[in-house]
């Protein structure tokens, strides 16, 4: 009986200590809090669990809150000074939407391709310069938003996103678009404004479902824009005046 009371007191003391560590908002203390939770063999309070769930990637790394991460459908990590996206992201196989905007990310890990249930991916206002080829594995993706980054080119695998309806990649550094863009047969909106484009591939005319194409603030000459208009007669095209 004495041992049981002592253990309960110990566990309560550890729970208070863990919550105090989280309250500091210091990365090292948060890491220590996770280590203490592992020491408790996940036998911690609901209040501690609430704190843990705010740090999804650490949950994955330490094997905590497995049921929560397994059934996580939407993940919003914006404006958090995030510099890297850990490979553990690939374990969130139930994700439907992922928002990573307003961070300091420079690249996406190849494990992003494991999120095969993903329908919406928003990675705007970061420092990303390229999109990994594994993006083509996201067969259910319907919206890809990556505006205001530093992207120089699109991977040819972009053409594998056959369910894509919205591709927003304006305010980047694109100088060309791959011919595989013509494989996006369900695309409704394509935002390419504020890049460094001088032309579009002829395959663009295969986008028969396209309703809106934004091309303002590029370097496309008038003879090229005239061609684009004939290729997409039923699409609203926004061009420089």
Describe this structure in words.
With 241 residues, the chain is an alpha/beta fold. 27% of the residues lie in helices and 10% in strands. It has an eight-stranded parallel beta sheet, with no helix packed on it. The longest helix is centred in the N-terminal third of the chain and has 22 residues, at 2-23. The protein is elongated, with a radius of gyration of 23 Å.
What is the CATH superfamily classification of the largest domain?
Ribonuclease Inhibitor
**Number of beta-strand segments:** 8
Low-confidence stretches: 1-5
Q: Return the string of H and E elements.
A: HHHHHEEEEEEEHE
Number of domains: 2
Largest beta sheet: what is the strand line-up? 1-2-3-4-5-6-7-8
Q: Strand content of the residues, in percent? A: 5-15%
Named at the architecture level, the CATH assignment of the largest domain is Alpha-Beta Horseshoe
Q: Could you say which structural class the secondary elements and strand pairing correspond to?
A: alpha/beta
List the helices and strands and how they pair.
Elements: H1 2-23, H2 27-39, H3 46-52, H4 56-62, H5 66-70, E1 74-76, E2 97-99, E3 120-122, E4 143-145, E5 166-168, E6 189-191, E7 212-214, H6 222-231, E8 236-238
Parallel strand pairs: 1-2, 2-3, 3-4, 4-5, 5-6, 6-7, 7-8
Helix pairs in contact: 1-2
